[in-house]
Each structure stands twice: as structure tokens, then as C-alpha cells.
Amino acid sequence: MAVVASALAGPTFATMPCSAADSTRRTLAKDAAYPKCWQSFVSDIKGEKRVTPAIKDDVRRHGIPASLRADAYYALSGAVSLQHEHAGTYSALAASTSSLSDDVLYSVEDDVRNVRVTFKDSRLFSTAKGAETLSRIVFAYLQYNPACGYFKGLGHIAALLLTTFGREREEQAFWTLAALLKRRCFPSCDGQASLGSHVEAHALQLLLEQRQPALAAILSKLRADAVEQLATAWFATAFTRALPHEVVLRIWDCLMVEGPKVLQRVAMALVKMCASSIQSCTNLETLCRVLEGRLARTTDADALLSVAFKGLGSLSGSTVDAARARAMSHVQNQQRLRSSPLAPLSMGASGLIAKAASGPLSVSSRGSNASSSSSAGGGSHISSGGLAVCVSRPGSKQAVQWASPKSTGALLSLA
């Protein structure tokens, strides 16, 4: 049975299970008002119909027809091939949660409760059955991709897909979720949102520095990692908790047809459209609140996508891939530094100054065997590999000292 090719390489509709094919035929019979490009795209389900320039343009301007959206997502995301490769897997995963910890179970249940509030106008989640279906999908995904781990936003992404597919197409919604995260949202991280969202946010920072340097400079003055602070949640939730759901679906329509670079285009467009707020806010906390409110009121998907595709200039897939590669290296280096026993030293001056701002602090270096201890006065002593780090809070005086990375005998200090 044929599979669906990647959208970046010329996405196609391929042979679907009978239920999907029948659904599409019913859709076409019910909605004869489709543009010609869509009618030819799905009329021959057993053939392979490529996404034409006309379809791409129509999706940018109008989105995928609502009654065709589920079938298009299922095919274009790569979910068809995933389901065929893993036949029977979903039923097994959905049948048990024994491999998940109590903390994960509680977090998912809490997330599902929040989803029911967010989607309060949806008939699907007005009953317990809808919530149970959503829970099964999320639990199954966490077992299908254990390296991903639970993350805030997984429930919202799954919920929006489920409202698109309906409970009767639960398994197709699951495989579309898996394909969406792996092949569209976080293609460089195998669907691992906790890593991928940081990679995407740092890639955004790099792209802004290239394409919108003035705004990037303003943001960096607020905080060196201001872009990551603002945008990590956008990517981790595929915009589902930042923008109205009708707008998110229009973004996802383009994402399915054109591939992962769409999310970067949309994020850059949001930054550009919020330029006045970025220029007027004097601290990052205020800016986060202002942008949260502005994005929640962003109901004009046409305006947003017009900026994303016409207001940013050329943005090739290779340019985005290069930014992602640099961002991946940066994020992995940061993770290694944070996991190091000598993380305070690895943080450098800026990190230690930030720690000092939260309370008087001193750090000193001396030879020692690997150990850690705490003093009654609130200080702590950590050592590893012949280098000891002492952290204390000496009264009201702030003092910061750290070892020079080139010489364990050299101490730098800030008081």
C-alpha cells in the first residue's frame, strides 16, 4: 500500500483505509463548492495527487476546507504511513497506563481538566466520554514516544486534533498527533517537545537577528534570552495556548501543506506585528503579559498569514534548517552545562550575577575530592575533580566569586 510523502518533497494523497476514503467521498458529495484544485486533489483516492501551487496558494488564502481538514491532516502529516507501519500498536498502548508514573498520570489528568475549561464551547468535551478519549490519546502517545516525556501543551494539541477528527476517528487523531510532533513541529528532535521547543525558540532568535535585527536588539536589551522566554511556549504548544483555535487551525493547514518552516514564519510574523509593544515595554515581564493579551485577541488569520508569507521576504527551508542546526548545538551545550556538577562555574559571570541578585552569594574555588556539604549558616560546598565551589550568604553583603575556567587557582569576584 502506498504511503504519503513528506510535504517538503511534494506531499501526496495516497491510499487510505476504507474509513478515510469513504469519509472523503462523502465530503466531496456533500460539498460540491470546493475549489477545483481540491476536487482534483481528492477525487481519485487511490491515485497520488501532489500538492499543486494552486492548492498551496488556496491554503494560504483560505485554509483547508473545514469538512476536508481531518482527511487532509491525516494524509499530509504522514500519519497514514505511521499507522500502517505500526498496525495494532495504538490499541495496545491505549489499553494500559502501567508503564507511566503516578506523577505523569496526575499531570495528564490535570491537563485534561484544563482542556475542558479551554474548550468549554466544544460539544466533544462537554461529556466525560470526550475527556476519556483525550486521556487515552495522550497516555498512548507518552508510551509510544517515552523519550518525549510529558509536557504542558500536549493535551491542548491533542484536543484540537480530536475536535477536528471527532471521537469516531480516535486512532487517526492519535497517529496524526504523532506525525505532527515528529515531522512538523520538532523535526530535528524526533518529536521531543521539551528539547525541540527550546531549539525552535533559539532558532527564532537567530533568524530574527538576521531578518529583524532592530527588534532582536531591543529584545536582547530586556534580557539576553528574551526571545526564548517569549517563544518557547509558542512552539511547545504549537500555538494552541497563545492564539485562538480558529487561527491555529489556519496555521496548521499551512504547516501540513508546506512543512516545518511555517512555524518559524508565523513566529517571526507575530514578533513583527507586535513591534510597537516590544519597543514600548521596559522589562520582559511586562512584555510577556502584553503579548499574551495581544495574541489572545488575534482573530484575523488572514492578516497574520499575509505577514508570515508576504511580509518577511524569502525564507528558504535550508536557511531555517541551518538556524535549527546552530540552535540544536547551543541548546545541547546549555543542557550539558546545567547538568554538570560544577554548573555554577559553567554558568559564567552572567549566571552567577543572576544568582547573586536573589540573595548575597559567594563562590570560591579550592582543591578537593568530589563531595558536597551544607553549613548551618546557609552556605553550601560542592567539589568535583579537584575543584571546590563554596556558596554562602554572608549577612547583607553580596559577594560573588568563581573560578577562572583556565586556572583553578584564579578567583574572580564581584562584591
Automatic annotation (TrEMBL):
Chain ranges of the Rab-GAP TBC domain: 63-259
Domain of life: Eukaryota
Pfam family, one: RabGAP-TBC
Region (Disordered): 361-381
Database matches in InterPro entries: Rab-GAP-TBC_dom, Rab-GAP_TBC_sf, Rab_GAP_TBC_domain
Compositionally biased tracts (Low complexity): 362-381
Gene Ontology molecular function terms on file: GTPase activator activity; small GTPase binding
SMART domains: TBC
PANTHER family, per the entry: RAB GTPASE-ACTIVATING PROTEIN 1-LIKE, TBC1 DOMAIN FAMILY MEMBER 2B
Protein name: Rab-GAP TBC domain-containing protein
Taxonomic path: Eukaryota, Viridiplantae, Chlorophyta, core chlorophytes, Chlorophyceae
